[in-house]
Design goal:
Length: 311
């Protein structure tokens, strides 16, 4: 089949045209894999023929599918998360910038979402390229955060557990199963070699080796980089739209702007590997990315102050 990869924005995202995920073969997967690494988010429309089994098989080509310990998983297919929100079940925990499941020692590498029911308005998903966000930092800031590590935790899900003994016991079991990992603040993508900011407000706790107020200030600054419009992509869903994103270099945010309408999605997530940071002393990044961040401009001459004038 003739497949066309059409970039959407300058920094992130591409629409895939002419691909039928119900007829996925090795050649098509290779095209999609390479496009995902390059553009970080892929949007495929009109995938009516794709079944849930096709979706799971597509995800499994990237690696083993994972089971989320807190999300509403299907009983018959626990690898599938059903995100079904409406007036009777309002959305929660998605309206914050985050990369999926960084509370794991080996967070997911790819997340794939398929729209089943979409509201008449609203319900978009926003994405941010954290490789572009990294490139947008000054060289001095890049050197400053080089080699730092940050503690992550499943903090938003702690509210699911009450004070009853059985609830507390279950929480302790999950804490043992998912001990807080330390991840690099700057992650190196294992395929592209690009560097990405790898902290997010949903799961990051504190940076090691600095005072708490210093950690909070630095994390807040890094979190805000996802909010730069140039680094973002906003996807408007239609029924049978499939979106997959590279969780190693992308954060996302799902606004709660469609209540009380219904929005139903099916998600599969691919288990990942241990995030690796940049080794050795700091050197500037040499791997190219999409778009041009902070293009070089001629320096502006500062105004001459009165006491500095010679004539």
């Amino acid at each position: 089949m003739a497949v066309e990869i059409v970039p959407i924005n300058g920094f992130i995202g591409a629409e895939v045209r002419g691909a039928d995920l119900a007829r996925l073969d090795d050649a098509l997967f290779e095209v999609l894999h390479d496009a995902l690494v390059r553009y970080e988010v892929l949007v495929l429309r009109d995938q009516q023929a794709m079944t849930l089994e096709h979706q799971m098989a597509f995800g499994a080509r990237f690696g083993p599918l994972s089971v989320h310990p807190f999300s509403p998983n299907r009983e018959d297919k626990p690898e599938v998360i059903v995100l079904d929100y409406s007036a009777d079940h309002p959305a929660a925990r998605t309206d914050i910038w985050h990369a999926d499941e960084t509370f794991r020692a080996n967070p997911p590498i790819v997340t794939m979402l398929r729209a089943r029911i979409v509201p008449p308005r609203g319900g978009d998903t926003c994405f941010a390229s954290m490789t572009a966000a990294y490139r947008g930092l000054s060289e001095r800031m890049k050197a400053h955060i080089h080699g730092l590590v940050c503690l992550h935790d499943f903090k938003p899900f702690r509210s699911l557990f009450g004070s009853a003994p059985e609830q507390r016991r279950k929480l302790r079991e999950l804490e043992d199963a998912f001990p807080n990992p330390w991840h690099p603040v700057v992650r190196v993508h294992p395929v592209s070699g690009r560097r990405a900011i790898y902290v997010n407000p949903q799961f990051s706790i504190r940076i090691d080796g600095v005072r708490p107020d210093e950690s909070d200030a630095l994390l807040d600054y890094l979190y805000r980089q996802a909010s730069v419009p140039e680094y973002q992509l906003r996807v408007k869903w239609q029924p049978d739209t499939v979106v997959l994103w590279d969780n190693r270099s992308v954060q996302h945010y799902a606004p709660h702007d469609y209540y009380p309408e219904r929005r139903s999605m099916e998600r599969v997530t691919v288990a990942g590997d241990v995030p690796i940071g940049v080794a050795g002393a700091y050197t500037p990044e040499t791997v190219a990315g999409n778009g041009m961040v902070n293009p070089t401009a001629p320096p502006k001459r500062p105004p001459v102050r009165q006491f500095e004038r010679t004539a």
